[in-house]
Amino acid sequence: MIEVEGLTKFYGPKAAIQEVSFQVARGEVVGFLGPNGAGKTTTMRILACFMPPTSGTARVAGFDIGKDSLQVRRRIGYLPENVPLYGDMTVRQYLTFAAEAKSVPRQERGKRLASVMERCLISDVSDRLIRNLSKGYRQRVGLAQALVGNPEVLILDEPTLGLDPKQIIEIRSLIRDLRGERTVILSTHILPEVAMVCQRVIIINESRIVAVDTPENLNLRLQKSSRILLEVDGPAEEVQKALAAVEGVLTVAPQEARDGRRRFLVETDREQDLRKDLARAVTSNGWGLTELRPVDLSLEDIFIRLVTREEEA
Ligand SMILES: Nc1ncnc2c1ncn2[C@@H]1O[C@H](COP(=O)(O)OP(=O)(O)OP(=O)(O)O)[C@@H](O)[C@H]1O
Ligand SMILES: [Mg+2]
To answer: What is the pLDDT of residues 125-155, one digit of tens each?
Structure first.
């Protein structure tokens, strides 16, 4: 339903996103997870045809965001990071206006409004002025606005931002209920949120995608093992054996050689830091150790940062 290929966006000399590629199947709810400034909003704005990328392409329901942006926009409901609401309209007036903009047929409008207001739990404030609503209610009006055109695809930029815990639960369950019915991309920097709502997670950090997987697999990958890359000047088979013999090592995978040096990806038991043991295994055999570093560290870093933030909040 959504195909993104090599999207890159520069603001002046600075890249907000680089070579971002992913796909989302019809009916899937996918989470875009990443710390502040990672590039989530930038990607979503491009998909919503809010601005063009510097390079790369994306298709929504087969339509190109550049060449067929009108077709794309018709199929997308977009909840921006800062919802542009009109304060001196009532909720009903604003949603009527949004329905007109989305070309909802006049005879269907009443029914459509009633159903999205019910879904977003705002029926009781339908005749209140938007400027008098609390932040959480405004966020829900924004969500109703995204849904009013009955779009196949929903792009929701931090849909639970600013909501209280009860509202967060309600909105999360609303989004989860869209599974199978709509294709949804939502952004968040709350790790447990993606686990609760999304079937798949795209992790973005410092403008690049660093992982795409199910929440379950990501957790497993993080819990079970950590990976260390070694570059060794020595006979491949013997080095591999020596590394595998270190206690706590789960697997040793030889990598492509670089400049004649051998590289090995070592998977280790998460509980132990084996870097010293691994280094010793190499040097005690008289081989040269030219590099030793944890890989996937960025992913781990992000998780730690994200989890910490949720706990702080
Ligand atoms: N209009 C702009 N002009 C210049 N730089 C921008 C602009 N918009 C975003 N950026 C930069 O692009 C990078 C990505 O920003 P983006 O808003 O996409 O991140 P984000 O993942 O949505 O972050 P957050 O979690 O804070 O919403 C950041 O470094 C940001 O400073
Ligand atoms: Mg953002």
So the answer is: 999 999 999 888 888 899 999 999 999 999 9
What ranges do the domains of the chain cover?
2-213, 221-295
Q: What is the pLDDT, as a whole number, of residue 304?
A: 57
Q: Are 137 and 122 in contact (CB under 8 A)?
A: yes
Residues with CB under 6 A from ligand 1: 11, 16, 34, 36-42, 81, 189
CATH architecture of 2-213: 3-Layer(aba) Sandwich (3.40)
Query: By alpha-carbon position, which residue is closest to atom 13 of ligand 1?
Result: 16
**Beta carbons of 234 and 289 less than 8 angstroms apart:** no
Residue of 152, 122, 123, 144 lying closest to 134 (CA atoms): 122
Under CATH, which architecture does the 221-295 domain have? 2-Layer Sandwich (3.30)
- pLDDT computed for residue 305 by the predictor: 54
The number of the ligand 1 atom at minimal distance from the alpha carbon of 12 is: 4
40-91 pLDDT, tens digit each: 999 999 999 999 999 999 999 999 999 999 999 999 999 998 877 788 899 9
**Among the bound ligands, the one closest to the CA of 309:** 1
Minimum CA distance residue for ligand 1 atom 8: 42
Q: How far is the CA of 188 from the centre of ligand 1 (A)?
A: 14
| Substitution site in 40, 81, 203 for ligand 1 pocket (most atoms within 8 Å of beta carbon) | 40
The strands making up 288-295's β-sheet, listed across from edge to edge, are 249-258, 261-269, 225-233, 288-295
- With tokens 């008289």, the residue in question is 286
pTM: 0.76
Which ligand 1 atom lies nearest to the CA of residue 38?
21
The tokens for 32 are 């875009």
Q: Which segment, 47-51, 202-206, 208-212, 256-260, is predicted with the most confidence on average?
A: 47-51
